[in-house]
Amino acid sequence: MYKVYGDVYSGNCYKVKLLLHQLAKPYQWIDIDILKQESRTSEFLTKNPNGKIPVLEYAEGRYLFESNAIMYFLSNGTNFLPIDTLECAQVLQWLFFEQYSHEPNIATSRYLIRYLNGAEKYKEVLAEKRPRGYAALDVMERHLTKHPFFVGDKYSIADIGLYAYTHVADEGGFDLSKYSAIPAWLERVKSQPNYIEMG
Amino acid sequence: MYKVYGDVYSGNCYKVKLLLHQLAKPYQWIDIDILKQESRTSEFLTKNPNGKIPVLEYAEGRYLFESNAIMYFLSNGTNFLPIDTLECAQVLQWLFFEQYSHEPNIATSRYLIRYLNGAEKYKEVLAEKRPRGYAALDVMERHLTKHPFFVGDKYSIADIGLYAYTHVADEGGFDLSKYSAIPAWLERVKSQPNYIEMG
């Protein structure tokens, strides 16, 4: 059985959990508390030398890290990843966009505010991340105005990847009420079969 | 014929150029000057709504963005991407590591120093990025001590992705002389058939 090392309130970990539920794959969840440095122990570094969660133990003592790579691995050959090479590359395009332009601004803001209770302490960092996070949301809004989902008009891991931190963007200080296509898309994701809430 | 919109001194663009050369695929290169905001014009935003390079025009008026997604698209079905799902996911694992933990520290430092001539002006930002960049290099060193390449002991787009900014890390103020496995790997990449220099 798969083992997932993660934190149930981390969006990156939630991606893997949501996908496993939607795939109806059994798994064991092992809680890792990053605030207690549990992802930085020498034992954990043998699982992921980069010291981050989630990590998937796909076979005894064999590990895969990076949430979006784990989703690729789990979804390959299923309805959650297109077979067509171009469409698959488009899924990856949106997942790389997520990790480079979305997560470091929206997820990190949420982390500073929610996990570290640092709205005041990290005021300047948060102020820098704000316009960059909205820029990423603007890119999503623009795309979703014309398409029901990110790739091929069909729900895929690209949607799961972007949903994870977008649906809790308010916890990072982002106001989604100025958007219309994004909230409608969030509802479409929530209405997918076997959807589960974060947590 | 493919068209690539890019900057020949950008590592992200170089990834695509190096791969196209090694695949012996003809392409047209269109220079985009990011310092002149050429990636932010309304016309360019129709190619990549996120306003970044490189962009691949894979068919007339059809675009793919994000360097690592472009590499996936171009290398699928070739020797540069494993067929095995797990190995392919491991390639992606390293490419997501590159975009999240390596590029924002090493490439961005190089950008601030080399493109913006801002070693003094961005002193504090650079000081923050320094340990994070070295942490990414440490992860690479650790892996390369045991493996000749990143995945399956074979050259792949994971190596191209990590080579792009590692081989010019000195321009971002990173000293590679304390490593041994990384320099040896850089030489292995340089000795691959149809290798071309950045520029």
Q: Given this structure, which CATH class of the largest domain in chain A is correct?
A: Mainly Alpha
Major protein interface: A-B, 34 and 33 residues
Please name the CATH architecture of the largest domain in chain A.
Up-down Bundle
This entry's quaternary arrangement is homodimer
DSSP helical segment count of chain A: 7
Q: Which descriptor suits the 3D outline of chain A?
A: globular
Spans of chain A of at least 5 consecutive residues whose pLDDT stays below 50 are: none
Question: What distance lies between the first and last C-alpha atoms of chain A, to the nearest angstrom?
Answer: 21 Å
Strand order of the largest sheet of chain A: 2-1-3-4
Secondary-structure-based class of chain A equals: alpha+beta
Number-wise, the strands of chain A total 4
What would the average pLDDT of chain A be, to the nearest integer? 98
CATH topology of the largest domain in chain A: Glutathione S-transferase Yfyf (Class Pi), Chain A, domain 2
> Domains counted in the coordinates of chain A: how many?
2
How much of the polypeptide of chain A forms β-strand, as a percent range?
Answer: 5-15%
Q: Order of helices and strands of chain A, N to C?
A: EHEHEEHHHHH
Largest sheet of chain A: 4 strands, mixed
Radius of gyration of chain A: 17 Å
Task: Describe this entry's structure for a reader.
The structure is a homodimer of 199-residue chains. The first copy, chain A, is an alpha+beta fold and 199 residues long. The first copy, chain A, folds into two domains: 2-75, Glutaredoxin, CATH 3.40.30.10; 85-190, Glutathione S-transferase Yfyf (Class Pi), Chain A, domain 2 (Up-down Bundle), CATH 1.20.1050. In chain A, 51% of the residues lie in helices and 10% in strands. The first copy, chain A, is built from seven helices and four strands. In chain A, strands 2-1-3-4 form a four-stranded mixed beta sheet. In chain A, β3 (55-59) and β4 (62-65) form a beta hairpin. In chain A, α1 (11-22) packs across α6, α4 (85-115) runs antiparallel to α5 (123-146) and α4 packs parallel to α6. The first copy, chain A, starts with a strand and ends in a 9-residue tail after the last helix.
